[in-house]
Amino acid sequence: MHIKKRINNNVVLAVDGELEVIVVGKGLGFQVYPNDPVDITLIQKVYLPTEKMSVKQMAVLLNEASFEEILLVEKIVKIGEAELGRTINPVILFSLLDHLLFAFKRHEENLKIRSPIEWEIKQFYPKEVEVGLQAISLIKEEKEIVLAESEAIFIAMHFVNYQFDQESMETTMDYMEAMGDITQLVRYYFQVELDETSINYQRFLNHLRYYLMRLNTQETMNPLDNEEIVLTVKKKYPKEFKCSLKISNYLEERYNKQATFDEQLYLTLHLVRLLHS
């Protein structure tokens, strides 16, 4: 195994045979160069590309995090595996890491938001919520950051998300069609081309998938009081907010479900990240 590219002091892009992989280890990327052999004594984790995430996308996310934050998320995944009694797809590390980095930033800015499907997650996925609560405690212990308990719901959702592999082909096709229509709507509304290989594009699709997951349930969602935050976001990002209304109107017509203030908030924030990051 040899190094193709140094990502940072603890992460490298390596070539193992003909396969490109991401390798993580304390000091693994320190003073190394392309074609250097990987120091196998420093390897702590090797990540293979998947259909859901390329090594390029993995590298971008890992480069944004400290080594300690990567290890923290690894611990949370292990907590999840222990609580749920099954092996979790390792790709969850990247989506969970991405979310927590965003959560830490929101914590610094004192921006508290809640999931639009909090009631359903608590009702139907109590084990996953328990994983989220344990993760919140671990974050407090290791980073001395006190996240709101509502963040446990977001963490739980990442573990719930990996049940999508069990959805019917009919549902999968429906989701794909809806997501395709929405991305076309965004392209047309902003008159832009979207980079489908970018991390922010994948983030946007992941959010849409959660949105569609809720719309596909038969339960009535309890409304959450985030109207004040939505009005603030609406004032700061008027065009993105108007686009989120168009997306919500499309989904309302398709699924006969009305968007909440929380959903408007999240659609707007993800549009901002998609278009301006």
Automatic annotation (TrEMBL):
Repeat keyword on record = yes
Write down a Pfam family by its short name: PRD
- A Gene Ontology biological process term: regulation of DNA-templated transcription
UniProt GO molecular function: RNA binding
Keyword Repeat on entry: yes
* SUPFAM superfamilies with a match to the protein in the record: PTS-regulatory domain, PRD, SacY-like RNA-binding domain
| InterPro entries in alphabetical order | BglG_antiterminators (IPR050661), CAT_RNA-bd_dom (IPR004341), CAT_RNA-bd_dom_sf (IPR036650), PRD (IPR011608), PRD_sf (IPR036634)
Keywords, in A-Z order: Repeat
Every copy of the PRD domain together lies at: 64-169, 170-277
Q: Which PANTHER family match?
A: CRYPTIC BETA-GLUCOSIDE BGL OPERON ANTITERMINATOR
* Name of the protein: PRD domain-containing protein
Q: What is the lineage of its organism?
A: Bacteria, Bacillati, Bacillota, Bacilli, Lactobacillales
